């Protein structure tokens, strides 16, 4: 493979084409492999994913088809020293997020201090008045967090997004590793990589440590609440429940009984202590939120506020996913930790501000514009890859509803090679490390989910937009 002509930082190769230290063991192994073996293994990986049923649904497509998320065999490798630095920044940010959420639902000291404008909270649909004055068991709001990172240089990692509501993708992280170990067992004897397969056990332990007062005196009962088989991430819900040894439940399996939330079992109704919910706030409780919801359980919010159950993640955490809030994260981190942020934000223009809106409208062709509550790569404009007509149409949407958008520069994301018919070729990547939070501490899984843009030159890594995934390796010391 030759050095990419792209100006992006190549994580595998130096500017002169030599191999970076983190990839040396892998590249030595790769040179010994015949090309036909790698082609055959690539086909085997796809067959394995289809057989296992590792698919996701695409909302908005005509037939709501199930798709296979493409898997690439070339791992994304991070050195032990680099991971240590990253972990410090991730832990600092997660601590700040939890402190921020507690403050938002109590005294709002950050607003009183003038560090966060009240307007970003006023009328914000992700802010839940029902959580005001209430502290979740153990003081934990974000039990599972996904921090999306992008890399632009050797030591230049930036946070692209915070996922504090219901971060997804951890099942792909686990299956990617299992697939790599099954296909190339000898590679893992040559290169020492930190384990990720114990994530479900660590998740179960972390959730149990967040059990409410009502759980004292017995081993906490944990269940996973899914919207059902038609949800895009249903595979992951079922996978995690199975791996944790927890029950997978739907709203119809639950009811409030004697001040507890109980699930239907073959032995009758059993009280749940911790509910890992993969259902959005609006659908959790028809008595509190959307009356027409059949996905949650009537009265669960009353039980929650009375200390009868832990809901993970806590209702109302979605405010931290808001991209307008994201733009204030450097101030948020400093306000609650007393420290400068270790991980930088991507520079962000808030279109709700007149000067920023004027700049964004003048420079749409060079910027990435996102919806404040958007996710999955939907509803966004990537200026450099858009036509004049698309830019003009988007400008009209911006003028009509500027509060709904933020804008960022088009970053030169780092690249990692993928396996193609013509050999290895560089593609842009991001990284979503997964973080567990409990009263016992913050636990960061080494690595995470690497998403890769499979189209040459593309910066969009989301699976819903044609991206794929890779195994993420953190080297052992």
Automatic annotation (TrEMBL):
<feature type="domain" description="Circularly permuted ATP-grasp type 2">
    <location>
        <begin position="75"/>
        <end position="453"/>
    </location>
</feature>
<dbReference type="InterPro" id="IPR025841">
    <property type="entry name" value="CP_ATPgrasp_2"/>
</dbReference>
<dbReference type="Pfam" id="PF14403">
    <property type="entry name" value="CP_ATPgrasp_2"/>
</dbReference>
<dbReference type="InterPro" id="IPR016450">
    <property type="entry name" value="UCP005522"/>
</dbReference>
<protein>
    <submittedName>
        <fullName>Circularly permuted type 2 ATP-grasp protein</fullName>
    </submittedName>
</protein>
<dbReference type="InterPro" id="IPR051680">
    <property type="entry name" value="ATP-dep_Glu-Cys_Ligase-2"/>
</dbReference>
